[in-house]
Amino acid sequence: MAKYTCADCRQCRREGQKLFLKGERCTSKKCAMERRPVAPGQHGTGRKKASEYSVQLREKQKAKRAYGLLEKQFRGYYEEAERMRGVTGENMLALIERRLDNVVYRMGIGASRAQCRQIVNHGHITVNGKSVDIPSYQVKIGDVISVHETSKDNAIFKELRGARIVMPKWLEFDTESLVGKITDSPKREDIDLNINEQLIVELYSK
Q1: For residue range 159-179, what is the model confidence (pLDDT) as tens digits?
Q2: Number of structural domains the chain divides into
Q3: Confidence (pTM)
Q4: Virtual CA dihedral for 194, 18, 101, 7, nearest 10 degrees?
Q5: Which of 61, 91, 101, 182 is the most exposed place for a label (fewest CB within 10 A)?
């Protein structure tokens, strides 16, 4: 499987904004966007007039990198959203938001989506009482998401006890019992990423 092996901070610099790929580092002074807010490479400071295609492509790359998806995965969500009723761009983002690794991230169980993907892969998360180790698993309204009983004593989960976590309205998570629930479908206003999904739809529609 393809994997991005360069520094994550280069992705933020290339897109010109924080994608919060490194957890707490992104909110500290060590963040690359704070120190070098220009595109990577020797021509990073150069100014070029962006074409319509370039603007659309950058928006797609930004969304892919923020969620940690490959092109085939991302395109698949677009095609599925296109078959659904409603606005294609909003449907696409809602489908991606309902990925298990993203839900775990939104609940505050991990510091970044990459860490949450690893948490899921290692079998630390259960859905409705059953262990699920597939990051792309699509959660549904009413699903109960929890840290596996055998994993609750791990240091990373002990730190969550009693913590105050800000999360979207469509999620609930109790930091004492480490149990959460999907209470609604994600709405566009619940997604805080600075993404213009219409540009992505226009790109794929060509």
Answers
A1: 888 888 889 999 999 999 999
A2: 2
A3: 0.81
A4: 140
A5: 61
